[in-house]
Amino acid sequence: MLTKFLFFIISGVGKSCLLLQFTDKRFQPVHDLTIGVEFGARMITIDGKQIKLQIWDTAGQEAFRSITRSYYRGAAGALLVYDITRRETFNHLTTWLEDARQHSNSNMVIMLIGNKSDLESRREVKKEEGEAFAREHGLIFMETSAKTAANVEEAFINTAKEIYEKIQEGVFDINNEVCYSFIVI
Ligand SMILES: Nc1nc2c(ncn2[C@@H]2O[C@H](COP(=O)(O)OP(=O)(O)OP(=O)(O)O)[C@@H](O)[C@H]2O)c(=O)[nH]1
Ligand SMILES: [Mg+2]
């Protein structure tokens, strides 16, 4: 019972809203729970090259966890999202990160996202705490707002750039160099 509740509250951190802001440049105020996995895509340019990002948006709820896991394998990048106004979503990061590392390519680039930065008055997690967690676990970090669009472009594009650099250095061997798969968890 308790476990169920803990997983349930991870839902609603803003994963689907981040994706919608990135692909459609709009914000959806009503929370439609993601069922299973949803998909979005957008072209970006890095170093003069057109790169397609295909993004899998996963459900935060425990019931869908096994479905989520099957999408880790092909992912070059992951956005690991918590809600800065709900500490329990931050406390849960270690579990998600372990799960992601265990089921993904070891070179997968992980970006930690503290979302809902527009809700400063309701903040429960300091920016410094996000930075420290990211440093400790070797992740890139940003605070975003899917509502105001602050840092949303940067979050996806910086993750893609990191993947691009790894490919250039030859440490990341992916089949398709102009199409990166992302997973939002
Ligand atoms: N103020 C504010 N609200 C946000 C932001 N991002 C998302 N929300 C709100 O938070 C709620 C949940 O957003 P979703 O994107 O559906 O959350 P999710 O992580 O996809 O949730 P699941 O699919 O259930 O895992 C919605 O009511 C959004 O309107 C943000 O940056 N700022
Ligand atoms: Mg969702």
Automatic annotation (TrEMBL):
It holds the Pfam family Ras. Keywords: Signal. It comes from the Eukaryota. InterPro entries: P-loop_NTPase, Rab_GTPases_membrane_traffic, Small_GTP-bd, Small_GTPase. Belongs to the small GTPase superfamily. Rab family. PANTHER family: DRAB11-RELATED. This is Ras- protein Rab-2A. It comes from Periplaneta americana. The gene is RAB2A.
